[in-house]
Amino acid sequence: MKKIISFLLFSCLFANSYAVPALSNNDYRLIMSSQNMQNEKEELLDINKASEQDLLGRKISKSYVAKIMEYREITGGFDKLEDLKRIKGIGDATYQKLSKFLKVGSAPTKKVLNINSADELTLKYYGFSKKEIKKIQTFLDKNDRITDNIEFQKLVKKKTYEELKDLINYGGKK
Questions:
Q1: Are 140 and 146 in contact (CB under 8 A)?
Q2: For labeling, which of 52, 80, 143, 153 is most exposed (least CB within 10 Å)?
Q3: How far apart are CA 125 and CA 110, in angstroms?
Q4: pLDDT by residue (tens digit) across 158-173?
Q5: What are phi and psi of 10, to 5 degrees?
Q6: Distances from the Cα of 5 to the Cαs of 13, 14, 16, 51, 73, in angstroms?
Q7: What is the C-alpha to C-alpha distance for residues 68 and 52, in angstroms, rounded to an integer?
Q8: 106-153 pLDDT, tens per residue?
Q9: What is the CA 17 to chain-centroid distance, rounded?
């Protein structure tokens, strides 16, 4: 009888050591492979190539989509996603929401800026500050046109000049 009890006790201990523990729902964890994470990143739309329908399909409002398309039409595209903040109505909060759906996946083909005929919106989209826009407009009102890079350089900050000097066209009149 002692042998039977010893055998049963040993069997119970042995069986419990190899038993699979019961898991509750909280014990499951999602493990993403690098492939899954790569697919998730690929779901971001390239802001320079996405169509209106692609943007609307991501539940981005029609007004923002129209403004994004207008920005692309005027400037040639976005250099960095933060350029979205140049668009009227897109501040930090809206930018944070949009950045969850968008990326700059391709370099834009920037358009030449005719500084003498550009309106305030165009200048803003190209990154000019309010102060620089006012200086440019005041200069154009007095002088009819900016003739060269020397005049242009006097109206804007050095940083702005360096960023845009290759895109500026001085031909034409206001």
A1: yes
A2: 80
A3: 12
A4: 999 999 999 999 986 5
A5: -65, -40
A6: 12, 14, 17, 77, 87
A7: 9
A8: 999 999 999 999 999 999 999 999 999 999 999 999 999 999 999 999
A9: 54
